[in-house]
Each structure stands twice: as C-alpha cells, then as structure tokens.
Design a protein that fits this description.
284 residues, alpha/beta, nine-stranded mixed beta sheet, two-stranded parallel sheet, 11 helices, 11 strands
Length: 284
C-alpha cells in the first residue's frame, strides 16, 4: 500500500467517525449576500477586510489565535511551510508554490485557500501571495470584498502590465492578493502559456521567501488545475468527507500523476479533532 492509498484509508476512517465542527457548518457559500458593494481597488490601495462577515462564515480572525479553527489551520500549515521554506526546501522544486484544488465544486477549496493564507500571514516573519486562479468561477475577491479591474488573466494576456500592477496590498502586512481578472475564452491556454510558466518561475525564485497559494478550479470540472499543477511544488486536494465519492478522488489523483516531483496532500475537510492528522503525503 503506497502513501497515497494510506491517505485514502485514513480519510475513510475519519469519514466513518462523522466528526463535525461548528466552523465547517459556517463555511462560505458563493450565494452568501453582502450588504454593500466594494469599491474598485488598485495597486497601492490597502484592502481592509470585513472581519465580522468573515468570522460569521467560519474564517480565521488574525486577532484570535486561540480559536479552534485557528489551531486547526496552524496544524495544517506546518508541513506545508516546512516544505516551502524549511528543511525540505532543497528537495522540492518550486516548493513555495502551493496549489489548492478539489475533485468537484463545493468541497471547500476556496475556504481552505483563504484560511491557509490568513494563518500563514498571521506569523510575523511570513509573507503570502494569494492568487485566484479559478478564472472561470473566481471566488476570492467576492469572499474578501475586493473589486479589482485587473488580475491574473489581464497580466497573461498583455505585455503592458507588470507583476506589481496586479498585486494588491492588504491590511495584513504579510498578505498580498492577485485576483483572477477578466473572463477570457482562452483562459486555459493562457494558464498554460510560456508567460504563465515564466511567472511561476519568477514567483518561485525571485520570491523564494514568500509562500504563493493558488486557488484553482476543481480537477474534474476543467483542465486548468491540471495545467497549473505541473508548475507547482505542492498540491493540496480538498476532500469533503461523507460527500465526495472515492472514485472521484482517485480520478483526480490520476490527473496529477504526470506532474513529477510534486508533494500531494489530501485534506479531509470533515476531520475536526486536533489529535488526528489531516494530511497523507505521497510523491509523484
């Protein structure tokens, strides 16, 4: 039994326990209404978050490090940070580039991406760049109340924009964000373009002290996550226990088999006890 199969067996055991948590019940849903429309943001503007809104939908508050969900994501991020910036950095190509995906929509990948970014950025010596690469159905800007006119797709489409033109600053000193940008019928091709490959290399080498988190489409819904995964060092596959068929998870991991040298983590979303691990790692 290889490491990935062990991860699935562990996921099945956790699933049978039917462990729930109040935070998971409040996770963000795309149809959650906002009371007001945010203003357009541009580089240089500071993005302030609606912490009451985020907390009401189960997200981490950076000023409450003792909450249960904060503790959970503290445990989740530790192996990722070690791989990206610590002792295993030399062994993993593009180790600071982390892709978050799922098999199908609704499993909590955006919830995981945002909480992971908030948790890492809350550390005094850590820097995080959160990128919304789910360009077909972007959610990060909507959740965080950001309205930006340009983003990743705009950067990839033209040669007139610099990387600094699309990076947005936030009230958290260690957190920067790139939104998805405009919709584009050739978005998959743009994500597979030489410019995207060059961007990934730049983010990995020039910003090697910064963790870059990509929130991408579900693996079984589009080919975009599969395309991006080949450029990453670490991939987290979010699995909704008691909901996602194991056949879907196996099909998703098969799509990642062509991505050499990535570290794959399987995150069981329903597992909420602190004395049990979230992750099973396997190398491809």
């Amino acid at each position: 039994m290889n490491m990935l199969e062990k991860a699935f067996e562990k996921s099945k055991l956790l699933e049978s326990k039917k462990l729930k948590d109040t935070a998971s019940e409040k996770e963000y849903k795309n149809d959650s209404p906002r009371t007001e429309s945010p203003e357009y943001k541009k580089p240089g503007d500071i993005i302030n978050f609606d912490w009451d809104y985020l907390h009401a939908h189960g997200f981490i508050r950076v000023d409450d490090s003792h909450s249960r969900i904060a503790e959970e994501y503290r445990n989740i991020k530790r192996p990722l940070v070690t791989n990206a910036l610590g002792t295993r950095k030399r062994d993993i190509k593009n180790s600071n580039l982390i892709l978050i995906t799922s098999s199908v929509p609704g499993e909590g990948k955006t919830f995981t991406s945002i909480n992971l970014a908030l948790s890492i950025a809350a550390e005094m010596d850590k820097k995080v760049l959160l990128i919304d690469a789910d360009v077909a159905k972007p959610s990060i800007a909507k959740v965080l109340g950001i309205k930006s006119k340009i983003g990743l797709i705009d950067f990839l489409e033209t040669d007139t924009l610099q990387l600094s033109d699309i990076i947005l600053q936030t009230e958290i000193p260690g957190l920067r964000i790139i939104t998805a940008g405009k919709s584009h019928k050739f978005s998959t091709e743009l994500l597979a373009s030489d410019k995207m490959i060059a961007l990934s290399k730049e983010l990995s080498s020039r910003y090697s002290d910064r963790i870059v988190i990509f929130d991408t489409p579900p693996l079984l819904a589009t080919t975009q996550a599969e395309v991006l995964a080949s450029q990453m060092g670490q991939v987290i596959l979010v699995v909704a226990a008691e909901k996602t068929p194991q056949s879907f998870v196996l099909e998703s991991t098969k799509k990642l088999q062509n991505c050499s040298d990535i570290v794959l983590g399987v995150l069981n979303k329903a597992q909420r006890t602190l004395n049990a691990g979230y992750y099973g790692y396997g190398h491809y």
